[in-house]
Amino acid sequence: MGVPDERSTTELIESVKAALASPAPKNRPADGSEGAYWCDDCAVRIRDVDLKEGPVCPDCGAEMRFERSTGRDCAC
Fold it and tell me: Which top-level group of life is the source organism from (predicted)?
Protein backbone atom coordinates (compact mmCIF):
# COMPACT_ATOMS: atom_id res chain seq x y z
CA MET A 1 0.00 0.00 0.00
CA GLY A 2 1.29 3.39 -0.92
CA VAL A 3 0.81 6.74 0.68
CA PRO A 4 -2.55 8.24 -0.31
CA ASP A 5 -2.24 11.17 -2.66
CA GLU A 6 -3.72 14.58 -1.93
CA ARG A 7 -6.65 14.02 -4.32
CA SER A 8 -7.85 10.80 -2.65
CA THR A 9 -7.51 12.38 0.79
CA THR A 10 -9.54 15.40 -0.33
CA GLU A 11 -12.22 13.14 -1.85
CA LEU A 12 -12.44 11.17 1.39
CA ILE A 13 -12.81 14.34 3.45
CA GLU A 14 -15.50 15.67 1.11
CA SER A 15 -17.39 12.36 1.31
CA VAL A 16 -17.35 12.44 5.10
CA LYS A 17 -18.49 16.08 5.13
CA ALA A 18 -21.37 15.26 2.77
CA ALA A 19 -22.46 12.30 4.88
CA LEU A 20 -22.42 14.33 8.08
CA ALA A 21 -24.25 17.26 6.49
CA SER A 22 -27.06 15.19 4.98
CA PRO A 23 -30.44 15.34 6.72
CA ALA A 24 -31.40 12.61 9.15
CA PRO A 25 -33.51 9.71 7.85
CA LYS A 26 -37.23 10.37 7.94
CA ASN A 27 -38.34 7.03 9.37
CA ARG A 28 -39.53 8.57 12.62
CA PRO A 29 -43.14 9.58 12.16
CA ALA A 30 -44.40 12.81 13.74
CA ASP A 31 -47.56 11.31 15.22
CA GLY A 32 -46.81 11.70 18.93
CA SER A 33 -45.40 8.20 19.40
CA GLU A 34 -43.07 7.74 22.35
CA GLY A 35 -42.18 4.14 21.57
CA ALA A 36 -43.69 0.72 21.10
CA TYR A 37 -44.61 -2.39 23.02
CA TRP A 38 -42.72 -5.62 22.33
CA CYS A 39 -43.67 -9.22 23.07
CA ASP A 40 -40.54 -11.19 23.93
CA ASP A 41 -42.37 -14.50 23.45
CA CYS A 42 -43.52 -14.11 19.87
CA ALA A 43 -41.67 -10.99 18.61
CA VAL A 44 -44.79 -8.91 18.02
CA ARG A 45 -44.23 -5.14 18.09
CA ILE A 46 -47.04 -2.59 18.35
CA ARG A 47 -46.39 1.15 18.36
CA ASP A 48 -47.98 2.93 21.32
CA VAL A 49 -50.14 5.10 19.04
CA ASP A 50 -51.50 1.96 17.35
CA LEU A 51 -52.39 0.18 20.59
CA LYS A 52 -56.12 0.01 21.14
CA GLU A 53 -56.12 -1.56 24.62
CA GLY A 54 -53.53 -2.37 27.30
CA PRO A 55 -50.08 -3.68 26.38
CA VAL A 56 -51.13 -7.30 25.92
CA CYS A 57 -49.87 -9.32 22.96
CA PRO A 58 -52.68 -10.03 20.51
CA ASP A 59 -51.06 -13.34 19.52
CA CYS A 60 -50.24 -14.98 22.86
CA GLY A 61 -51.85 -12.79 25.52
CA ALA A 62 -48.58 -12.10 27.36
CA GLU A 63 -47.84 -8.65 28.76
CA MET A 64 -45.68 -6.63 26.39
CA ARG A 65 -42.71 -4.51 27.47
CA PHE A 66 -42.23 -0.89 26.42
CA GLU A 67 -39.28 0.10 24.23
CA ARG A 68 -38.32 3.69 23.53
CA SER A 69 -37.90 3.53 19.78
CA THR A 70 -40.43 5.68 17.98
CA GLY A 71 -39.52 4.57 14.47
CA ARG A 72 -41.45 2.13 12.36
CA ASP A 73 -38.75 -0.55 12.52
CA CYS A 74 -37.65 -2.77 15.37
CA ALA A 75 -35.24 -1.29 17.91
CA CYS A 76 -33.55 -4.65 18.42
Answer: Archaea
